Amino acid sequence: MSQSKLNHSTDTKIEDSSWKNACIIGGVAALISVVCSLITMIVIITIGGEPSTANEYFTLLNNNRIVGLLRMDFASVINLSSYYLMFFGFYAALRRENGAYTALATALAFVGITLWFASHSAFSMISLSDQYAVATTDAHKSQLLAAGNAIISSDMWHSTGARLGGIFLESAAVLISFVMLRSKIFGKVTAYVGILTHGLDLAHIIIGIFLPSAGVILMAIAGPFYIVWLPLVGRRLIQLGQGTSKEDVNRIGGISR
């Protein structure tokens, strides 16, 4: 074998190994997302959701910082961080099946996640609550409360950026689920559950703009499906990353349908 052919063979193996590692990392990220989703659900059921006013935020954070962070849905920061890695894992797994749509879905997801992060209010509210705790005048406290209420009105649940981020991310997840459906890499059950889960969440965001109560209902319906979809894609990505050949990947894909 010539030196050039040997180098080409080595480069292919290194590339394949890197993509397999990306699948494994994406699969682990999906499983981490499951844990974060469960934490969010448990927190809402047991100790409540996010406060509705700046005064509630400041009181909660100053009295019990851990409970305050949990009720501020801080677990979602880790959850959404894992989506970067998960979608890159999807790209690694599906890039040869439908490169254009897989790339588009990955790009939409990255933009959506970034927009969502830009609107998360956790660190801003922590800073304001610390200032509020040491404020000595009523005027200063009133200014801090006004700033806190302004942040709430532009946070991840209310701002334009957050809603657009949600639309981009859920659209990306619906698109990648359709790519899964047309490929042999992921099972059809995984694809259909993904379409249902993210289709409902996408509808919740859009319909919620006009009919907030209907949006809440759709979100409540979509939520439990995440606990089904995320383990499915996590397990599958890890399987793909551990495969030793294309034949093994196709065989596993056929069994999982």
Structural summary, described in words:
By secondary structure, this protein is mainly alpha-helical. The chain has one domain (12-248). It is built from 11 helices and no strands. The protein has helices spanning 3-46, 54-63, 65-71, 75-94, 99-118, 122-134, 138-153, 160-182, 188-210, 212-242, 246-256. Helix 2 (54-63) crosses helix 3, helix 5 packs antiparallel against helix 8 and helix 6 packs antiparallel against helix 7. The longest helix has 44 residues, at 3-46. The protein starts with a helix and ends with a helix.
Blueprint (SSEs and pairs):
Blueprint: H1 3-46, H2 54-63, H3 65-71, H4 75-94, H5 99-118, H6 122-134, H7 138-153, H8 160-182, H9 188-210, H10 212-242, H11 246-256
Which characteristics define this entry?
disordered C terminus; disordered N terminus; 257 residues; mainly alpha
Structural class: mainly alpha
Low-confidence stretches: 1-14, 249-257
Shape: elongated
- Helical content (DSSP H or I, runs of 4+): over 70%
Largest sheet: none
Write a short abstract of this structure.
This protein has helices at residues 3-46, 54-63, 65-71, 75-94, 99-118, 122-134, 138-153, 160-182, 188-210, 212-242, 246-256. By secondary structure, the protein is mainly α.
